[in-house]
Amino acid sequence: MLPVIWDRRTRTILLLSQWVALALGIIATAPRFGPVALGAAGAAGIYVLGFTSTPLDWYRRPLALDGALVLGVILTMVAVTLTGSAESPYLLLALTPTLWAGIFGGARRAFSTALFASGLLYLVELSRIPPNYRDVLLITGIQLLIAISISQVRRLLGDIQNRAARLEMDQEVSAKRLEQLQDAHDLLTQLSELTAKQETNPIKLGNAALDNVLRRLPGSAAAAAFASERGPVLVARTGIEPPHAHRITIPLKVGGRETGWIMVAAPHGVSASEIDAISESLQPLALAFGNVQLIHNIAGRAISEERSRIARDLHDDLGPSLASLGLSLDLAMVQHPVDRPLADQLTQLRRSVSYLVDDIRKTVADLRAEPEPSLVTSLHEVASRLPEGPELVIELDERRPPRPSASQEIMGMVGEAMRNAFLHSNAKVVRVSGSVDFDQGWVSVVDDGSGFDPTSVPNGHYGLVGMRERADRIGARLSIESGPVGTTISIEWGSK
Known about the structure:
Elements: H1 4-29, H2 35-53, H3 62-82, H4 91-94, H5 96-105, H6 107-126, H7 133-197, H8 202-216, E1 221-228, E2 231-238, E3 246-254, E4 257-266, H9 272-281, H10 283-335, H11 340-368, H12 375-385, E5 391-400, H13 404-424, E6 429-437, E7 440-450, H14 463-474, E8 477-482, E9 485-493
Parallel strand pairs: 5-6
Antiparallel strand pairs: 1-2, 1-4, 3-4, 6-7, 7-9, 8-9
C-alpha cells in the first residue's frame, strides 16, 4: 500500500490528466459538432466527473475500485466508438483507467484493465469495414506498456515506503538501545559513587554484622557467609559455640535473591519474633552483600574480557615474533662466526630473548587462569574457619595479588602454616607479615607457642611435606625455624 500523501498527489495528477484529455477530445471533435460528438463528450464527461467526485478512500476498497474501473473503461470506449474508434481523439482518455488500476490496484488489475479496454476496442473495430487491426494492436501495446510501467513504479514506491518504515523502526530500536545504555551508564556511575563512599569489603561487613547479632544474643557464636559464584564463602566468625547450642540459619535476601547467610549457635532457643528482629537488622548487610556481588560481577566480566584480549595478543603476535628473533640469532651465530666479545653479547641477547619468551608464556597462562582473590582476603577466609584460639595479626603489604599460576600454591603454604600454629602450637599470638607484589614477595608466619623439631615429624603428619612440594612446584624458597618457644615459617618467591 502506498503512503497516504502519495495517494493524494497521484490522484490529483490523474484527475488533471483526465480533464486535459477530455478537453483535447472535445476540442478535436468540435468542428463536426452534432449529436454523435455530443454523446461522446457526455460519456467522457460522466467518466471524468465520476472519478473526480469519488472519495479517495473508495479507491482503497477492492470491489469499489473494480466497479469504477469497469464503468470507466465502458464510458471511455463509448466515447471512442462514437468518434472514430482507433482514430478517436478520446483514445488518450481511454488510457487513464489503466493508470488508475496500476496505481491503486497493482499489476494484476492494471493488466486486467488494459486487456479489457483493448478487447472492447477490438470488438468495436470488428464492426467497421474494413477493420483497422494495426491501430488496435498499437493501442493494445500502449495499454500493456502503461500497465507494466505503472506497476513497476508502484512496486518501487512500495519498496521505498518499506525501506523508510524499516529505517524508522531501526532508528527507534537504536534510540531505545542508546537510552538503555545511558540508563546503564547512570546506574554504574551511581554505583561507583556509592562504593567510593561506603565500605565494600565483605569480611569487614560480616564482622560488623556479627557483633550486632552477639549483642542481641549474648553467649552465642555466629558466622557470616557470602554467596559467590563458587558457592558460600565464610567471611567472618566470632564467639565460642556454647554446649548444646541451638543452631539457626538466617538467609540474607535482596529482591528474593539470596546474597548470603548468618549462622547462629545460641545457648537457648530463639523465638520467631527474635529471628524476625535479627533479620530486619541484617537487611543493610544483605544489601551490602548484594552490592558487592554486582561490583564483582561487573568488574569480573570486564577484567575477564580484557585478560583474554591481552592473552591473545601476546600469544599470537608478540610470542611468535620473539621466538622468530631467537631463531634468527641462533642462525646468525651458527652461519657467521664472530669474534669472542661479539659472540658473548649475542649469546647474552639470545638468553634474554629466551627469558622473555618464557615470561610471555607464563603471563599468557596467568591471564588464561581463573583470577584468584587477594592473599589478604584468602587469609581472612581461612582465619574465619579456624577455631577460637590465639590472636591473629595479619600485616601483609600486598601491592598486587600473587600471579595466578602461583597463587594457589602460596595460599596453600601460608594457610597450612596458620592452621598448624592454631591447632598445635598453643600460641597466644600468630603473626602473618610480608610483602607481596605479583611475581615476587615473601610471607612469614610467626607464633609464640611451643616449637617442634622440623627434622622429626610424626608419622601421619604430612603438612610440612606438602608445603615443601608446593614450594618446589613454583620455585619458591621455604624456611622453617623452630625451637623450644616459637616457630617461624618463611616463604619467598621470585627475585629479590
